[in-house]
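[Q] Does anyone have a clean structure-token version of this?
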Amino acid sequence: MKLKDFLLHRTRAEELCVICNPWRIATIWIDHEDLFIRYVDSKLKESEVINDEWDSLETALDNGCRMYIQAHYIYIKG
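[A] Here you go.
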């Protein structure tokens, strides 16, 4: 399945998606109107999805503290 189809049909609004190949190469916030898709690189949109899973993403706050948020990791062919 192509990444664009996966993002449009296998995710839900308000998900944070992390695209990996296997390195993290992009993050995408899924909005309610699917407006996000126009900001995804055209080459990435055509990449084949090989796996996905839920995991946490480490994030830094403005005060230097770290927090972990749930994210949908999507792995594509490199």
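[Q] Thanks! Anything notable?
[A] The mean pLDDT is 97.
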